[in-house]
From TrEMBL:
<dbReference type="InterPro" id="IPR012336">
    <property type="entry name" value="Thioredoxin-like_fold"/>
</dbReference>
<dbReference type="InterPro" id="IPR036249">
    <property type="entry name" value="Thioredoxin-like_sf"/>
</dbReference>
<keyword id="KW-0812">Transmembrane</keyword>
<dbReference type="Pfam" id="PF13462">
    <property type="entry name" value="Thioredoxin_4"/>
</dbReference>
<comment type="similarity">
    <text>Belongs to the thioredoxin family. DsbA subfamily.</text>
</comment>
<protein>
    <recommendedName>
        <fullName>Thioredoxin domain-containing protein</fullName>
    </recommendedName>
</protein>
<dbReference type="InterPro" id="IPR013766">
    <property type="entry name" value="Thioredoxin_domain"/>
</dbReference>
<feature type="domain" description="Thioredoxin">
    <location>
        <begin position="52"/>
        <end position="243"/>
    </location>
</feature>
<keyword id="KW-0472">Membrane</keyword>
<feature type="transmembrane region" description="Helical">
    <location>
        <begin position="21"/>
        <end position="43"/>
    </location>
</feature>
<keyword id="KW-1133">Transmembrane helix</keyword>
Length: 244
């Protein structure tokens, strides 16, 4: 029971004389809250029915591995470059989707390095630094295509920063990057800020593991138990979205 309600119960005269100032003010606050929440819900629906807002999922400087005119169908992946599951999805799902749907869908990747992967942030920094020279896709592919050369140490997750850094620079050289600029960008606060923003966006959307996908603003959850199941389900969803 509110303070006003208790006061009215104790004082029937006050109750008969109409709403108190406190009650009026409370009503105004509730009305404003409803309007604000309503506005937020409307904005959240802008990315798809009941989905996340496109502004949160796809910032203006987002990296696209495939770009479709008008962004009719947009697939967003929050990934960790040192995540074994992400590497498996890359081999079994996303690399194929990127090739098969090129130009038909917009495929966006966002950073979400996990704390348990000590080389995930350095790898994300390498990818972002390559992106500053227009070579994000090349570094993205190199990191996953050569996953075992830097991300693992035998059967365990590697924490060898020196070895990983050497491999990242090798990938940068192969992609034709200015190596000195790549090194400077990798260490820059600007690049780290992009990674931090991606993590903040993902966290706000409820991302807590990788890979996490959103198709047209709706989180995609595979019903099957294998990578092949996930590929079939995601393709079916994409095909339905393209047909719609």
């Amino acid at each position: 029971m509110s303070r006003t309600a208790r006061a009215n119960k104790r004082n029937p005269v006050t109750a008969r004389r109409g709403p108190s100032l406190n009650a009026v003010l409370t009503g105004v606050v509730v009305l404003v809250a409803v309007l604000v929440i309503g506005g937020v819900l409307v904005l959240d629906r802008s990315g798809g029915a009941g989905g996340a807002s496109s502004g949160t999922l796809v910032p203006p400087d987002a990296h696209t591995l495939s770009k479709a005119e008008g962004d009719q169908v947009t697939l967003v992946e929050f990934l960790d470059f040192q995540c074994p599951a992400c590497a498996s999805y890359y081999t079994g799902v996303t690399k194929k989707l990127e090739q098969d749907y090129r130009g038909r869908i917009t495929f966006v990747t966002r950073n979400f390095p996990l704390e348990g992967h000590p080389l995930a942030v350095p790898a994300a920094r390498a990818a972002e630094a390559a992106g500053k020279q227009g070579k994000y896709a090349e570094m993205y592919h190199a990191l996953y295509d050569n996953f075992d050369t830097w991300a693992t140490d035998g059967r365990s997750t590697s924490a060898d920063t020196a070895r990983a850094t050497a491999k990242f620079e090798e990938f940068a050289t192969a992609a034709g990057l200015d190596l000195e600029r790549f090194r400077a960008d990798s260490a820059s606060a600007e690049v780290q800020a992009v990674i931090d923003r991606d993590v903040a966006d993902g966290t706000a959307l409820g991302v807590d593991s990788t890979p996490t996908f959103f198709l047209d603003g709706e989180e995609f959850s595979a019903g099957g138990s294998t990578i092949a199941d996930a590929e079939r389900e995601l393709r079916a969803r994409i095909d339905a979205a393209l047909a719609g």
